[in-house]
Write a structure and sequence with these properties.
- There is one protein chain.
- The protein is α+β, with helices and mostly antiparallel strands and 373 residues long.
- The chain has 4 domains: 2-115, Methyltransferase, Cobalt-precorrin-4 Transmethylase, Domain 2, CATH 3.30.950; 123-197, MazG-like (Helix Hairpins), CATH 1.10.287.1080; 257-321, Helix Hairpins; 325-372.
- The protein contains 14 helices and 7 strands.
- The chain has a 5-stranded mixed beta sheet.
- Strand 5 and strand 6 (92-95) form a beta hairpin.
């Protein structure tokens, strides 16, 4: 059934609700009625509105009101306008933040559309903002970017997300994830302009992959635990990547060297190409250290040092210690202790270059003691 108003076309799949919904919508002042398009959503069903399109949410009642507010809050902020609509009552304009969180205010809510710059809580808004930045008359910096020029920013933002996770501050993590998300949207916008793929294609591919590789969730497969999930994941991935001829195929070339060393050895270990026991790994480490000590020149020393680091990464697997995280932790401890030393010398009015190493090591031990406490 279809209702026309100017250029607005509304299609209701359930004809029982047509008269009631039409009456609610028509109660709005003419200046606020939607024109062009309208989302109509039942509060009893899961939904997330697109804030760039006018939205009517009907069938409000106490049992679903709290969930409705949560869903609306995913895309709108407290200051955004909302109309309360009900049978035999005048429509009332207010803000989302002014709604009573415990009692539904009316039969329906009407959410006027937001401009892309105002739709800050929506992926729809973000996508339009990025499009505007790239469009003629937008930002010169954004307009000149390419996939390759953005590569350093992708890596940098990924590392900053990792730092935020380690820092444990949820607000910082949300901020850094936003910077990383921007890189995904920007890369997709570039591809869209060249007719290669869109952000929707990116979402489709990862959604399809997740469903395909979780048959125990989206199919009828039964698993006993996380270890079996990993095995199934690897098997399904192998089927998808049947063109790969080596267990080392598909490793990102941009991985940090220590991470790559650990990943190589994880893959080799999975297929049985491994030392028979932990003692063999430690014996190999001793052998490589001896070769490093006896290296005749810098070039040979570099090669031998690489072998030592590679075996150390393998030893970490046996000990349950991540090589990259271990070295990162050591770097952080050294930096913190050295700042302690610098601080102590400043308190004494001394310059680092004027203090003997023996005295510096005494202060270094103080730093270690302070760290332990």
């Amino acid at each position: 059934m279809l209702r026309r108003r100017g250029r607005l076309r509304l299609l209701f799949l359930n004809p029982i609700n047509l008269a009631r919904l039409s009456a609610l919508l028509c109660s709005l002042p003419d200046s606020d009625q939607p024109d062009g398009s309208l989302q109509v959503m039942a509060a009893s069903a899961p939904f997330e509105p697109n804030p760039l399109v006018p939205t009517l949410i009907f069938d409000l009642h106490a049992a679903n009101w709290e969930r409705v507010l949560v869903q609306v809050g995913h895309a709108f902020v407290a200051e955004d306008a909302v109309w309360q609509l009900g049978a035999n009552v005048l429509p009332r304009r207010t803000t989302i933040g002014a709604l009573n969180p415990r009692v539904p205010p009316a039969d329906a809510l009407y959410l006027p559309p937001l401009a892309p710059e105002a739709a800050k809580r929506s992926l729809h808004g973000l996508r339009q903002v990025v499009h505007r930045l790239r469009a003629p008359g937008g930002c010169p910096w954004d307009a000149k970017q390419t996939h390759a020029s953005l590569l350093p920013h992708v890596l940098e933002e990924a590392y900053e997300v990792a730092d935020a996770i380690r820092g444990g501050d949820p607000n910082e993590l949300a901020d850094e994830l936003g910077d990383l998300l921007l890189q995904v949207v920007l890369q997709s916008e570039l591809a869209d302009e060249d007719g290669q793929f869109t952000l929707n294609d990116v979402a489709q591919q990862i959604s399809a992959k997740l469903i395909r590789r979780h048959p125990h969730v989206f199919g009828d497969l039964t698993v006993t635990g996380a270890a079996e999930v990993e095995r199934n994941w690897d098997e399904l991935k192998a089927v998808e990547k049947a063109d790969r001829t080596s267990v080392l195929d598909g490793m990102p070339r941009s991985l940090p060297a220590l991470v790559a060393a650990q990943e190589v050895q994880k893959r080799l270990k999975k297929v049985g190409f491994d030392w028979p026991d932990g003692g063999s790994v430690q014996a190999k480490l001793a052998e490589e250290l001896a070769e490093l000590r006896d290296a005749p020149d810098p070039s040979a020393a570099e090669a031998e040092l690489g072998d030592v680091l590679f075996i150390l990464a393998r030893l970490g697997l046996d000990l349950g210690a991540d090589a990259e995280e271990s070295l990162r932790g050591a770097n952080a401890r050294v930096a913190e202790r050295f700042r302690f030393v610098e601080s102590r010398l400043r308190e004494r009015g001394q310059l680092l270059r004027d203090v003997a190493i023996e005295e510096l090591l005494v202060v270094w031990d103080e730093a270690k003691t302070a760290e332990a406490h």
